[in-house]
Amino acid sequence: MTNVYAPMIGKIVKINLKTGDKVEENQPVMILESMKMEIDVIAPVGGMIKEINVKEQQAVESDTVLAVIG
Question: Tens digit of pLDDT for each residue in 14-66?
Fold first, then answer.
């Protein structure tokens, strides 16, 4: 299992995948808004989305586990 972490403090504006979806390495999993910029949160590895731990519009801290890939 590999965790997908928030790269910085911000707000989740869009979740591109759902639990059970296949994901490839470097594919955007969700979009984080921080300092009026939108940042793609990318998958560090390929696999299947096992968990999505946040919801759209949720504020997150840096290094929050956003999703788990297995």
Answer: 999 999 999 999 999 999 999 999 999 999 999 999 999 999 999 999 999 99
- Domains within the chain, CATH numbers bracketed: 2-69 (2.40.50.100)
- H/E stretch holding 52: strand 47-52
Task: Determine the Cα–Cα distance for residues 20 and 36; give it in Å rounded to an integer.
Answer: 31
Residue 53, C-beta contacts closer than 8 angstroms, at least 6 positions apart: 64, 65, 66, 67, 68
Report d(CA 53, CA 69) in Å as an integer: 11
Two structure tokens written together for 19: 């639990």
What tokens appear for 20 in the block?
A: 């059970």
Q: Can you say whether residue 26 is alpha, beta or left, with left for phi > 0 and alpha for psi between -120 and 50 degrees? A: left
Copy the structure tokens of residue 35.
């300092």
